[in-house]
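Take a look at the protein record below and flag anything odd:
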Amino acid sequence: MKNMKSPLIVSPLDSYDDVEKLVTAGADEFYCGILTNDWYHIYAPASIDRRPKGQAHFESFDELQKRVEKAHSLGAKINITINEHYYTPEQYDYIDEFIKNAISIKADSLIISDPALIFYIKEKKIPIKVHLSTGGVCLNSETAKFFTEAGVSRIILPRHLSLDEIETILDVEGVEFETFIFNSRCVNVDGLCTFQHGLSGAKVELYYKNACMLPYDIHVLTRKPTDDEKKINAGKRQKIWEYVHIDDFPCGACALFEFSEFGIKAVKIVGRGNDSERKLKDVKFFSMLKSLLNDGIDKVSFREETKRLYKEFYDRKCRYHMCYYPEAMS
């Protein structure tokens, strides 16, 4: 067996009372967003981090500061999302203040998609770590080198990549890697998607909580007549996705074994906006899997035990279309 070190568990955080419970359950790090009224009054409905206004955000740095202090006292870290694809020059006064506030409350990093903002932080020598959001679309090792040279300390890989594709990117020194592992799987490329994640509001139908589930027509724009097959496949793919892109516990837990072998630094549980009970259950699930890995379990036994625990925790069998890394299902 290769030398293995199980990845850190990165949990969503949007509730003031969850820090200690989630750390006790096994969370090593948190990620969260802040959407202040100052931003929202000017730019609504556009968010600063691709999430609609609602329970997925803290509303002020003062509110978050106590959670940062609590997390640090328990040995955990808190990373703040500011991961819209780009920001206009007029928004940079607000962005400057946002970053100053993040530093003042001792946030551990900023999660950023926009290359321009990453270079802005580097050129200004702003003293805060930067994690590349999945929205930064790191699809190969050359892109990883580019962002590493730009000052990024961790790269969150796009969630649609296969295990083989992920492994080819990791041969880059001086940077950590994080992968998606649970909830809100998506077959599309985050960095090429301009939807906000989800539609807010209690009256929104379950099936339309994500904008890409809306029943709209698909038109593939191309001038090449030979691309007819691509058009048809793109349309079929989107129609299928309208029906299956429900946040019905999509899971990549079996790949935790490979991620430990690869040396992946952290795995992300999606779920800002989920209730506390669900976040706690998700962290406990992965904490149990980490314990199995730390005890030296072999791959076959790990797969079997992971599937058993998934059924026990979520009352669901493994499903190919809900699997982040289906090549790990066998």
In short: The radius of gyration is 20 Å.
